[in-house]
C-alpha cells in the first residue's frame, strides 16, 4: 500500500545512498591521493549539498506554511490522549484545559519552527563549508600532481648510450 510519504522516503534513501557512495570515493581517493576519485567525490558532494540545501529549506518552508495544521494535529492528539483510559497514562486535568492545550501546541510549534530554522541554516552552512574544503583539496591535489614522475634511466639503456656518444 502506497502512502503519501513513500516518495519522500525513497528520495531520502536515494540521497543517503548517493552520500554513502560519494563518501566511499572520498575516503579511498584521499588515502590513495587519486585525483580522479577526488574529482568524482567533489562533484558528488556538491550535488548532495545542493540537494540537501533545497530539500531542507523546502521542508522548513512547508512547515511554516502548514503551521496551523501542525497546531491542530498537536491539539487533537493531546485531546485523544486525555480522553483515553489507559493504565499507563493518566492525563493531568487543568482548569480551562482546552484553551491552554491549543496555546501550548501553538507555542511548541513556534519553538519547533525556530529551532528547525536554526538547524537548517547552520547545517547547510556546514555542508557548504565542507564542500568548499573538498573543492580546495581537489584543486591542491591537482596542482601538486601535474608533473610526471621521473623515470629511472637504467630502464632505458639506448637513451643513455646515445647521450654518452654526444659527450
The portion of residues assigned to helices is over 70%
Proportion of strand residues: under 5%
Mean pLDDT: 81
* Biggest sheet overview: none
Number of domains: 1
The tally of helices reads: 5
Structural class: mainly alpha
Low-confidence stretches: none
Instruction: Compute the CA-based radius of gyration.
Output: 29 Å
Number-wise, the strands total 0
Overall outline? elongated
Straight-line distance between termini = 85 Å
Helix and strand pattern: HHHHH
What does this structure look like?
Helix 2 packs antiparallel against helix 4. The chain is elongated. The relative contact order is 0.10. It has one domain. By secondary structure, it is an all-alpha fold. It contains 5 helices and no strands.
Tell me the layout of helices and strands.
Blueprint: H1 6-32, H2 35-65, H3 67-83, H4 97-144, H5 157-166
Throw out a few tags for this protein:
167 residues; mainly alpha; 5 helices
Short characterization:
The protein is mainly alpha-helical and 167 residues long. The protein has helices at residues 6-32, 35-65, 67-83, 97-144, 157-166.
